[in-house]
């Protein structure tokens, strides 16, 4: 079984996890990595391909041709803006024998568009922070006392901590909204933001509480299978640097509800704030998130589960079970590539 990780970037650990998964499953195959430029994950993979940019007209034809030529069975995107593009072409890949591990197009939109995420959560009657797409509406609500300063200001279609700011007053809010509009126009966020260019900045009341993370595991049919709960101990540039797995029945039930309602495929990375026992879901990412390694270290093995499902085999519940109380840290390592010369 051959596997392709797209937008692989620096996720060398996922390359290794999938290599190990093939061995554990007793299957032969190679782990391929794709990226729009040379990166550590490409050096770690068995085979590599440098692709056009995601929004290029040549991106999907390039991947399709590669999947056919290399007999790719599983294609797993690792970057938010990759997901809706691949979801829109799932049928073409399936016709070529490749399973794309994403949700449907609407599921991808719900996760990538933070405003749609809020609407989805409200439909489930889950608590969400006070949120606005217009600075003047936010200021009016803050003046009226229905929300309080500070507020977080960020791209509606964004990821990590890119263009994420905190405003403490009206003047700062107006300045930051304009700043984010300019920054969006100068980077890759401009493509998705073009869907609603006048309302592409999200303003949210800042939550105060423990930062938690969920990995919600669904199978390749979108059926909920398991959930891992973590407390984030340290963050860096919007990604979890250290976390500990915990046992929390309420959060496990929340993860199960999200998995059964969204019916994504593979992993759903969920950011949650625990505000004195009230759980606010802040964001959902339908992919392997930066917090997945902490679930993996504690016993869950979603790469193995995906390989088994793709080969038509059942997955014992133990493969996705997480041990509580396991704390782990990320570290910086060097990925060396040896040339053929």
Placed side by side, the strands forming the largest sheet appear as 14-13-10-11-12-15
Query: Radius of gyration, Cα only, in angstroms?
Result: 20 Å
Percent range for helical residues?
25-40%
The computed structural class is alpha/beta
What does the main sheet amount to? 6 strands, antiparallel
Q: What is the beta-strand fraction?
A: 25-35%
Q: In terms of per-residue confidence, which ranges show pLDDT below 50 for 5 or more consecutive residues?
A: none
Q: What distance separates the N and C termini? A: 30 Å
The helix count comes to: 13
pLDDT averaged over residues: 95
Shape annotation: globular
Order of helices and strands: EHEHEHEHHEHHEHEEHHEEEEHEEHHE
Number of strands: 15
Q: Can I get a quick summary?
A:
This protein has helices at 12-24, 40-44, 59-70, 82-87, 90-95, 105-112, 114-123, 135-144, 170-185, 190-193, 249-262, 292-297, 302-310, and strands at residues 2-6, 31-35, 47-50, 72-77, 99-100, 131-132, 151-155, 165-167, 201-205, 210-218, 224-236, 239-245, 266-275, 278-285, 327-329. The chain is of the alpha/beta class.
What does this protein structure show overall?
Residues 118-311 form the ATP-grasp domain. This is ATP-grasp domain-containing protein. There is one protein chain. With 341 residues, this protein is of the alpha/beta class. It has helices at 12-24, 40-44, 59-70, 82-87, 90-95, 105-112, 114-123, 135-144, 170-185, 190-193, 249-262, 292-297, 302-310; strands at residues 2-6, 31-35, 47-50, 72-77, 99-100, 131-132, 151-155, 165-167, 201-205, 210-218, 224-236, 239-245, 266-275, 278-285, 327-329. The longest helix has 16 residues, at 170-185. The protein is globular.
């Amino acid at each position: 079984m051959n596997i392709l990780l797209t937008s692989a970037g620096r996720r060398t650990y996922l390359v290794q996890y999938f290599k190990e998964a093939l061995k554990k499953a007793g299957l032969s195959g190679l782990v391929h990595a794709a990226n729009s430029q040379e990166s550590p994950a490409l050096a770690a993979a068995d085979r590599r391909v440098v692709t056009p940019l995601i929004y290029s007209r040549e991106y999907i034809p390039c991947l399709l041709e590669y999947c056919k030529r290399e007999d790719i069975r599983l294609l797993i995107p690792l970057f938010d803006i990759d997901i809706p593009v691949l979801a829109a072409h799932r049928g073409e890949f399936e016709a070529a024998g490749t399973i794309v591990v994403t949700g449907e197009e609407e599921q991808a939109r719900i996760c990538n568009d933070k405003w749609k995420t809020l609407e989805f959560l409200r439909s489930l009657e889950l608590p969400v922070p006070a949120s606005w797409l217009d600075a003047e509406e936010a200021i009016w609500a803050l003046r009226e006392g229905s929300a309080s300063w500070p507020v977080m200001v960020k791209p509606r279609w964004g990821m990590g901590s890119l263009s994420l700011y905190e405003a403490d007053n009206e003047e700062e809010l107006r300045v930051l909204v304009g700043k984010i509009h300019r920054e969006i126009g100068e980077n890759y966020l401009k493509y998705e933001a073009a869907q609603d260019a006048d309302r592409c900045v999200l303003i949210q009341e800042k939550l105060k509480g423990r930062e938690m993370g969920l990995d919600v595991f669904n199978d390749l049919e979108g059926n909920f299978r398991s959930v891992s709960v973590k407390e984030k101990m340290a963050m860096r540039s919007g990604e979890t640097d250290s976390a500990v797995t915990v046992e929390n029945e309420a959060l496990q039930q929340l993860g199960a509800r999200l998995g059964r309602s969204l019916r994504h495929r593979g992993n759903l990375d969920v950011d949650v704030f625990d505000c004195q026992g009230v759980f606010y879901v802040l964001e959902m990412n339908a992919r392997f998130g930066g917090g997945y390694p902490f679930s993996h270290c504690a016993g869950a093995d979603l790469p193995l589960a995906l390989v088994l499902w793709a080969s038509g085999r059942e997955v014992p519940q133990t493969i996705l079970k997480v041990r509580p109380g396991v704390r782990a840290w990320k570290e910086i390592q060097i990925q060396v590539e040896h040339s053929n010369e």
